[in-house]
Write a structure and sequence with these properties.
The protein has 441 residues and is α/β, with parallel strands linked by helices. The protein has 2 domains: 197 residues, 3-Layer(aba) Sandwich (Rossmann fold), CATH 3.40.50; 218 residues, 3-Layer(aba) Sandwich (Rossmann fold), CATH 3.40.50.720. 43% of the residues lie in helices and 14% in strands. The strands form 3 sheets. A 6-stranded parallel sheet has the order 3-2-1-4-5-6, sandwiched between helices. α5 runs parallel beside α6 and α9 runs parallel beside α12. The longest helix is centred in the middle third of the chain and has 32 residues. It is elongated and about 75 Å long. It starts with a strand and ends in a 12-residue tail after the last strand.
Length: 441
């Protein structure tokens, strides 16, 4: 099939490359000429494991192309995806649909034969209805359908998620559109991937509800970790114990400094705004949004307490800056709250992140960026693990104790065992786990 992908951000680029790898003919379209030229030259605008090779393979085989010329990609397309950004709108917290509606208007003026316009962007309930209205108004004679096909890609594992998904959600109002989308995803039939076919509004809400539910799980285990600190219990064992219950499951039960990224923060907020607008508030989600905001701030207090009550004049090594490993995404990362707060208290920051430092330098100033973890810790009084990159999981703790002036390690991702760290001579601080010798009876 001939596919046009409007937007070459995270979702559009990964989706376009994967559709091309399925054997479809894909044109990725973006107004950013510099980005398109970079993609044509094989330079990726994001870090995602395996993406560069996937793009290179499909470009070389003629199935994937990039252009700023929307007309050339849309006019002959069977399916046009809208995969533009929907950031939080300044001032009120709603999703900003400016780019979605602009794309719809542009598409309307270019389609010729029957075309399916699909929203891949994460959008509030009813957006598909507005997209349909825009196209009808702009081009009353257009032969088209509008469908919703939300994405469920995890940064750092997006290609695997696209090719081996838990489910495909299709929201459409005609059998013609559903049949075309079934054909588009036919390569997944061998994997017996479930396809849930529903109406557009339900499909749109599924995306928000899924992300909100996962955010609630994270918020829940983070609060349980605080309770574990208070009573001397171990949050990892609590998470394991409840996660074995098949009704609960073990995923997203890892205590940490709070969720971030491109999805959970803006999607929970957008769902909350939509619910209040519909006079049906989602109070659980509202609470999680506020709890997650506070969570990042309380991590600063943990670090200060571990430093003896003050960080003024102290040099701190921060390991990991991105909101999660295997991505260079800094959006809503805990480091964006924690690092400036420590600086305001008089600390100087040394930092290392395997992939995120180029993005971090745009957002975090007066930081000494280092080439590796050991260079980062050189001269620091303490180290703080903010992101659980694999290369931080097997550091020589005895060497760390010898390198850090005060021998203090604050592990906000619970990578190491308290006993192992204690045996190495470190003053070790983690989340929701008792120190050696202080376990609960």
């Amino acid at each position: 099939m001939r596919v046009a992908m409007i937007g070459t951000g995270y979702v559009g680029l990964v989706s376009g490359a994967c559709f091309a790898d399925f054997g479809h003919e894909v044109t990725c379209i973006d107004k950013d000429a510099a980005k398109i030229e970079a993609l044509k030259a094989g330079r990726m605008p994001i870090y995602e494991p395996g993406l560069e090779d996937l793009v290179e393979t499909n470009v070389s085989q003629g199935r994937l192309s990039f252009t700023t010329d929307a007309a050339s990609g849309i006019r002959d397309a069977d399916i046009v995806f809208i995969a533009v950004g929907t950031p939080t709108r300044r001032g009120d917290g709603h999703a900003d649909l400016t780019y979605v509606y602009a794309a719809a208007e542009e598409i309307a003026g270019l389609i010729r034969d029957y075309t399916i316009i699909v929203t891949k962007s994460t959008v509030p309930v009813g957006t598909g209805d507005e997209v349909e209205a825009i196209i009808k108004k702009t081009n009353p004679d257009a032969d088209f359908d509008v469908a919703s096909n939300p994405e469920f890609l995890r940064e750092g594992a997006a290609i695997g998620d696209f090719k081996r998904p838990d489910r495909i959600i299709v929201g459409a109002h005609t059998e013609r559109a559903v049949a075309a989308l079934r054909e588009l995803y036919r390569p997944l039939y061998l994997n017996e991937t479930p396809m849930v076919v529903t109406d557009r509004r339900t499909a749109e809400l599924i995306k928000y509800a899924a992300n909100a539910f996962l955010a609630v799980k994270i918020g829940f285990i983070n609060e349980i970790s605080d309770l574990c600190d208070a009573v001397g219990a171990n949050v990892q064992q609590v998470a394991h114990g409840i996660g074995l219950d098949k009704r609960i499951g073990s995923k997203f039960l890892h205590a940490g400094p709070g969720y971030g990224g491109s999805c959970f923060p803006k999607d929970t907020l957008a769902l909350s705004k939509t619910a209040h607008q519909a006079n049906s508030p989602v109070t659980i989600v509202d609470t999680v949004v506020e709890a997650n905001r506070r969570r990042k701030e309380t991590m600063v207090d943990r670090i200060v307490n571990a430093a003896g009550g003050s960080v003024a004049g102290k040099q701190i090594a921060v390991l990991g800056l991105t909101f999660k490993p295997n991505t260079d995404d800094m959006r809503e990362a805990p480091s964006l709250i924690i690092v400036p707060a420590l600086q305001q208290m008089g600390a100087s920051i040394r930092a290392f992140d395997p992939e995120g430092m180029e993005e971090a330098q745009k957002l975090l100033t007066a930081v000494t960026y280092c080439d590796n973890a050991w260079a980062c810790m050189e001269g620091a009084v303490m180290a703080v693990i903010l992101t659980e990159w694999d290369q931080f999981r097997a550091l020589d703790l005895e060497r760390m104790a010898a390198t850090l002036k005060d021998r203090v390690l604050v592990d906000l991702r619970n990578i190491y065992s308290p006993q192992e760290a204690d045996d190495s001579g470190l003053s070790y601080h983690s989340i929701g786990r008792p120190s050696p010798g202080k376990a609960a009876d």
